[in-house]
Amino acid sequence: MERRWSIRTYEKGDEKGIFKLIKAVYPEKKYDWEKWIRGWNWMYMNNPIGDSKIWVADHNGKIVGSRSVFLVKIKIGNETIMASQNSGLMTHPNYRRQGIFSTLEKKSFDQLKGDGIGITYSFPSSMSYPIYMKSGLFFNIHALQTMIRPFNLENILKRRIKNKFLLKIYAVIGYLFINMFYRTKKPPEVDDLTISQISSFDDRINDFWKKISNDYEIMVIRNKEYLNWRYVDVPNVEYTIYLAEERGEICGYIVLGCAEQDQLSGHIMDIIGPLNRPEIIHSLLSEAIKYFKEKKVDAIFCKMIADKIFYKIFRKNGFVPTRFITKSRFIVRINSPEISEAYLKNKENWFIQLGDSDFI
Q1: Which residues pair with 82 in a beta bridge?
Q2: Neighbouring C-beta atoms of residue 314, cutoff 10 Å
Q3: Considering the entire predicted model, what is its pTM?
């Protein structure tokens, strides 16, 4: 088939064509232009780390494909490198199976490598994951572990179990299982520890980052600039942030969000604390449970790749590991020969949470 499109970099005004493309790709979703463009500008135009990279497939002025990445700074061992996260790879339904996906990927990787972007990572959908793996350009790290703290099992299970009698039985069995093996423990008492809600991060978070960063091998740099962009300046959504302090110094934080789909659910977007102070992480998580109970959510969800300490604390707070929810895969590509592939492939080195993705 003759190729009727060409690849080029983004030009001002292309966002209108990209909006038409996304509506064609996801016709079941009711996108609002004003809301969408606010989110798009925040993610790609107002990123404090640097200009995002966007490429489009153009057919006589019509955008029929798009690939976008936004930049982040990431800590790998003792080094800080520039990285990019894949986001917004789309092909118009009428132009599929013409090589747009692979051509956009090659164009983007060539430029990212030339621009000195050390690695590129992605949280691919179930549809795009096989394509990424088949390309040989990415390697799989691990699926994010999904943990759920249920409050209303019937509301959660009714999406999968239509028979009301069976629904009641499974809900009762589920509660018995959770109460037997995942009974919530009271948080330990910590002298001088205060947890309070904040509207934004102040300069002290930079000092906290410097102290905490040595606990983690590979993670996105969480300084004031990044955290306020990711959780405070983001449009169309409001996150709740709790800060843990000891004698005026920050010793941890947690970011929470609510999403209303078929039922109201709570999401733990980001939780950080010293690995040698699990009581702080426990106290932050207890505050989150209290908050979500007041919001009357059906369940709290958390997705992460983290140190075993986190998983133990979550289990002590009644969170159950689950596999019946769609996997959130995490894959990486190396753009620089100076970065160790073996080091990146070890999932034990990574600390990744829902807030590190483009999930909003």
Answers
A1: 73
A2: 26
A3: 0.91
